[in-house]
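We modelled the chain as a single entity of 366 amino acids. Its sequence is:
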Amino acid sequence: MGTSGMDPDGRSFLGDSVNDTNPEDDSVVSNDFSTSLGALILSLVFVLGVPGNLFIVWSILARIRRRSVTTLLILNLACADGFIMALTIFFIVYLAKQTWVFGHPMCKCLFYLCNANMYASIFLITLMSVHRMVVMLWPQRLSQRITRKTVRWVILGMWGLVMVISVPSLVFRDVREDSDEKNKTRLVCAPEHSLARYVRFQYALESVCGFILPYAVIITSYVLILRRLRQTKFRRKVRSEKLILAIVVTFGLFWLPYHVVNMIQVAAEWYPMDSPTREILDHIQKSSRAVTSAFAFISSCANPILYTFAGKSYIKRNGFAFMAKLFEGTSDQAGNKKSRMKGKNSSGQNAESVNTSTQNGTAEVS
């Protein structure tokens, strides 16, 4: 970020020394309270998130033979979340020491991987929502064409896109020295933007592609899903929609502060260097960046908790297999499907058969 206003001695109002070649002279690790709180949040996230997501991956790979489309998406989401949770140990050390000790390559790679996993998480959640919409609105047409093979190719393409649009975090990130008001020098892994437009480009790209556009698709999908649910009497479908909706809402709540700070940072770049408004905006984003970034990590450990609550009815009967039972969904209904269809065909209730097909198509996570 650009500097805030300068006093006559050539120091910023926030107390950091001026670097004429690098306007981003105020470090997010210069705030003791923010970094301490961020380190505490990340420690809790690491303890809960790593085993929780590993358990989800194990449940799907070891316990489920026939994986539905939703299950494949949840598996990828758990892998992305689990991987980013494993990286938190580096950021805990960074915030605790308030200096970067892992070198230049790790600085670039770790933040690149975090950025990539941020995109992957929201894109996977978006795919879940779009898939639910398709099988709800067109159960007899498009839903039959959405095979697991097709979904695998879509997921592979998504990961390729994620790796490409995360490149700015790899390019505009490096280790530099930073001095505080006590002339104490620390190493910080921070963005390095030579021009203001690069700041606007990177953080606007993150928020638009990683939050605003995906959420617009998600909201549209769920509006159509809810409209469809009101038109059918098979209310058992609502349970799977509620689970995915809970994932969507949880992700949004935890990532919204991060993207608000991004927009504040982008807005600050439109003001002159000596503008009081810019100084205020700079102060807000620099003092809150560590906390909002750590807060965003919580979303990656929240999903295992959501799944546990959703599958609590299976825990007593299935023990550690309860998560697999939750994700299997349609396997419990497979035996009853034929009997339902026979009964309805014999009585000539064709319209109800169509609705039953809709139910089975949408109950992958029941």
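As a brief sanity check on the tokenised model: Strands lie at 173-179, 185-191. Confidence is low (pLDDT under 50) at residues 1-26, 330-366.
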